[in-house]
Structure formats: C-alpha cells, structure tokens
C-alpha cells in the first residue's frame, strides 16, 4: 500500500506515451495564449539574443524545442537561416501555420537541405563550428532545490498579460532530486467568446544544478570551448545578491 501517488502529468492526460502534458494539444493551445506571438517577447530578450548572435557572426540557427515558433519567426525576420524542431507536433502546428501564412515572403519560403536537418537532429553539438556558439537555458534549479520554490521575479522571456499561478513541487528519490514539477494555472480566452476559462496543466523537468550542467556542456565539446553563464541576460557571478530566475549558458567552440 502507498500513502499517495505522485503524478507527473495533468489529470486527464494518458498515463502512457506522454512524459508530461507538453505534447498534448490542450497544453499547446494554452501555451500559445500564454506566450503570445513574437511581439510578446520582452525587448530585453530580443536585444540580448540578437546582439549575441551578431557578435559571434552567426548566420544559421537550429532552434531546438522551438515550441510554437516565436523565436524562429523573430530570427527569420532578422535575416537568419533557421531550422526549427520540437517534440510536440501540436506545438509545431502553430509554427507551421505562421510559416504558411507568410509563405509569399522570401525569408519564409526557404526549406533548406533536408539531409542537413537530419544531421542536426542526430548530433546538435556537431553543428557548432569553431567560433560558433551554443545557447541553452534552464531555470534556476539550485534555488528551487534549496528553497522549495522558484525565485521571485518577472518573466524575462514573455510579456504575457494572462492571469497565472505557478506552483512548484520536487520529487526526491533516495535523497536525490529526481524531478521538478511546475503546475500552471492560466486564464485562457475561449474561442469566439469574451469570457475566460481556467486551464491547468503540468510540466516536469530534470533539475540540473548549474555546475553539473556546465560540466556536461564542456564535456560535450571535448573541452574545446569557452563557457559563460548569464543570469536573466546579465553576466552571472556565483554568490551574487540577486537570484536569477533563469541561467543561460553560452558555449563557444574554440577548435
């Protein structure tokens, strides 16, 4: 007998085939409303990412876990060649819809070499050329594991005006953190109606600590890299007064 059951998915989501509700159509619809389109991106994020890519002379971008394609659309508009991939076909349908609606624009009518896309999916790290950079972020799991809750602060990525609440749970196995679960409660407008629907969904993540994840990145590059960490778009210093909500790793291949 057990005292309780720990659910990694939202209620109503199939027990098999989905690690969480990310790939479910309902979550994709809520996510689409939650993050909005490219106009909902914060100016700070847009300026930071574009400046970083231009500084490193990047021209081709592989947008992994692109979601609804908000960043991909923004980067295409800025002149980058973009390949977008995501584990959820429901998420990708929003990106494909945007691409179809803008198919008459030259930048959105370049499909590229499919063999290169397959190669990119097999080995992302191999796509980073000498002088190129890999940008990857994650939440401040160090803070979450130490305090039991997410650090307080604005959402640095999205200017969402939807009423929301996010609660945090941590699953420990053999005294080691095994999973962090975020329960989202969002008020979503119903199609064709003015009233709002209260929608809930759950996402689960592995809680990578900053230093261990940094070591994994350096190992992936065989040590031939320079690594920097940003906290909410600012250079991060361990022990600083302000706890960032997100860590952003920038790894530059040297050889």
Task: Give a concise summary.
The chain has 255 residues and is of the alpha+beta class. It has helices at residues 25-35, 43-55, 70-77, 89-101, 114-122, 141-147, 210-220, and strands at residues 60-64, 81-85, 133-139, 164-173, 176-189, 196-205, 225-231, 234-235, 246-253. S-adenosyl-L-methionine binds at residues 22, 31, 41, 65, 86.
General description of the model:
By secondary structure, the chain is of the alpha+beta class. 28% of the residues lie in helices and 27% in strands. The chain has 7 helices and 9 strands. The protein has helices spanning 25-35, 43-55, 70-77, 89-101, 114-122, 141-147, 210-220; strands spanning 60-64, 81-85, 133-139, 164-173, 176-189, 196-205, 225-231, 234-235, 246-253. The strands form 3 sheets. A 4-stranded antiparallel β-sheet has the order 3-9-7-8, covered by helices on one side. A 3-stranded antiparallel β-sheet has the order 4-5-6. The chain has a two-stranded parallel ribbon with strand order 1-2. It is globular, with a radius of gyration of 19 Å. It starts with 24 loop residues before the first helix and ends with a strand.
């Amino acid at each position: 007998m057990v005292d309780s059951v720990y659910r990694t998915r939202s209620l109503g989501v199939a027990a098999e085939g989905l690690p969480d509700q990310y790939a479910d159509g309902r979550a994709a619809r809520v996510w689409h409303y939650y993050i909005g389109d490219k106009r909902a991106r914060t100016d700070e994020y847009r300026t930071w990412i574009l400046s970083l890519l231009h500084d490193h002379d990047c021209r081709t971008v592989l947008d992994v876990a692109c979601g609804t394609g908000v960043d991909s659309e923004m980067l295409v508009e800025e002149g980058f060649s973009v390949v977008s991939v995501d584990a959820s076909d429901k998420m990708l349908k929003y990106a494909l819809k945007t691409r179809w609606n803008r198919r008459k624009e030259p930048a959105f009518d370049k499909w590229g070499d499919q063999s290169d896309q397959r190669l990119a999916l097999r080995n992302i790290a191999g796509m980073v050329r000498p002088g190129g950079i890999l940008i990857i972020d994650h939440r401040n799991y160090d803070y979450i594991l130490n305090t039991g809750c997410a650090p307080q602060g604005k959402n640095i990525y999205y200017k969402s005006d939807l009423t929301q609440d996010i609660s945090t749970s941590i699953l420990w196995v053999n005294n080691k953190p095994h999973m962090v679960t975020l329960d989202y409660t969002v008020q979503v407008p119903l199609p064709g109606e003015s009233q709002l629907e209260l929608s809930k969904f759950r996402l689960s993540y592995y809680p990578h600590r900053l230093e261990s994840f940094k070591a994994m990145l350096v190992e992936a590059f065989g040590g031939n890299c320079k690594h920097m960490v940003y906290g909410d778009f600012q250079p991060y210093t361990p022990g600083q007064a302000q706890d960032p909500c997100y860590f952003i790793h920038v790894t530059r291949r040297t050889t």
